[in-house]
């Protein structure tokens, strides 16, 4: 669903965090929630949504304010959950050792394959092992360093919370 600038600007007056999410990766869900709050229908056509936003009454404004509070609370909970997960394992030795073994194993398998030809029946098994270790390396790096796109999205959405 394409949200017009009129809808985004009007929602932004009452619910800036929600308005910020209208153009982001959660846009479809947020548009349905805004539509439900303003028109009473989650699947209202664009024209009806635009008209309802331009002619909002007290009930619609209160519904948008409630949606803003709920959305802000969800963002804070999600950010706290990720921060707690990283903080919980910060000083623990086992996750660091496991991460090191996964990364070392990945590069050991790749390095070995550069210099040693795999046995004829093991090619498929080695391909599966490389895929598995590659996915694990990705998970390890995202856990320790975060996903950059997710961090950008969270920062953009949370900046609306601070205002």
TrEMBL record:
The organism's place on the tree of life at top rank: Bacteria
Keyword set, alphabetical order: Membrane, Transmembrane, Transmembrane helix
Membrane-traversing stretches: 92-113, 125-145
Keyword flag Transmembrane: yes
Name by which UniProt lists this protein: Holin of 3TMs, for gene-transfer release
Native source organism of the sequence: Tranquillimonas rosea
